[in-house]
UniProtKB/TrEMBL annotation:
Free-text comment on the cofactor: Binds 1 Mg(2+) ion per subunit.
The family this protein is said to belong to: Belongs to the 5'(3')-deoxyribonucleotidase family.
Native organism: Oncorhynchus tshawytscha (Chinook salmon)
Signal sequence interval, chain numbering: none
Name of the protein in its database record: 5'-nucleotidase domain containing 2
Cofactor(s) named in the record: Mg(2+)
Keywords: Hydrolase, Magnesium, Metal-binding
CDD domains: HAD_cN-II (cd07522)
One Pfam family recorded for the sequence: 5_nucleotid
Record-annotated active site: D39, D41
Gene Ontology molecular-function annotations: 5'-nucleotidase activity; metal ion binding
Binding site for Mg(2+): D39, D324
Amino acid sequence: MKRLVHDLIPPGVCNLLNPSTIYANNEVDLDEVDIYGFDYDYTLALYSNTLDTMIYNTARDFLVKHYKYPGGISKYDYIPNFAARGLHYDIQKGLLMKIDAFHYIQLGTVYRGLKPVPDDEVLELYGGTHHVPLQEVSGFYGKGPMMKQFMDVFSIPEMTLLAAANDYFNSNDIEYDPGHLYKDVSDAIGMVHIKGYMYKWIMQDLEKYILRGDETYAVLHRLASHGKKLFLITNSPFSFVDKGMKYMVGKDWRDFFDVVIVQADKPHFFNNCGKPFRRLDGNGDLQWDKIKSLDKGQIYKQGNLFDFLRLTGWRGSKVLYFGDHLYSDLADLMLRHGWRTGAIVPELEVETRVVNTEQYAQSLTWLQALTGLLERMQVHRDPKSKEVLQDWLKEREELRAVTKNLFNPHFGSIFRTCHNPTFFSRRLCRFSDLYMASISCLLNYDLSYTFYPRRTPLQHEAPLWMDQLCTGCMKTPFLEEMAHIR
């Protein structure tokens, strides 16, 4: 069977995925989209990994100097490939973990500090099960009673600092409160943003931190030249956005946009009608005149979506809004207002490179076939057969580890926990019509292009799919061979 599977993989099957592909969760006809909206950070502006290191180092030093945490934490340098977006932190137990779409902890992907927790200990901690009760999983905006979910690209240095501080306390046998630690780390990371450190670093060295600005210009120019209306809604301040957009797009960047809104306070912007719009003058100073229309060339601050819809009339599926945060940017727009949504997932580029390797293709195909063999041959109950099945189970676990480690040796792919989608992946499918690595992916598609979602097998349809047909697993679940059970 292994030889058969190896021979079944056709030459050139690797490199089939283009990292610039746009993937569809729902059918979207761009011909029907007249208005394109954008977030700024990690949507119009993509940042280099250097920024994560700066955020981590500053928050770590803040933790030591201002919160008086032990100086030994300062010796922990940033680990670039440790954390992955979509992880959960158990505030009571101090564990960082990966959870699948059905709220199961993936054993072997639970960390106490920077060290993995053995499977048997995980089971003991959670009462003999790796299932997390629904009420314990983080709420809609990531603030549940026991679990904090990290959905933002900016949260990767926060998770790493949380793990490093945990590791210091555990390694030095110091008692601490994981919930209190989480709050302090969260506050320290927050201070990097509140005090404007991040804005200052980027504005001082745009070339160092901002990636592929020419592609942002190309996207905006193409959309505007085809008569599309464009708008920007961001939580970032005007001075920061203005300097970044001038670097990427040019001094006349505002000519591309029909409406520009800064310091919007998302997600509250989308679900709270309390804050009125305020206008900023050319210097970014606040004006107090009543806003009766949202005009091109003006800069607006705060506001809310209900006034935005009333003043623009931009409603429903003719609007397509792009953002990187599934909750803050996209959830309310899709669920409550009927806009089309596009999720920016920068991790797709790295994950696509992994999927395109021969090692991944062979490991995954053999893993599928081996699972089918285990399912089919478990009817044999004699001791020697059981011994063979145990060997196969061991090999299956090793294959799972191999495929996971190709993405990230600590937490694997952000999209899968073994065979199930991750909690992040399920939310991505729920709250976005389209998803892609960057907005530059739009340059590969005609503006009248229709995106069609691929049909993926439900469990009862799986035998009709090619991997099942090719690996002798068609007879699932082999009821005639298990007739003796009746």
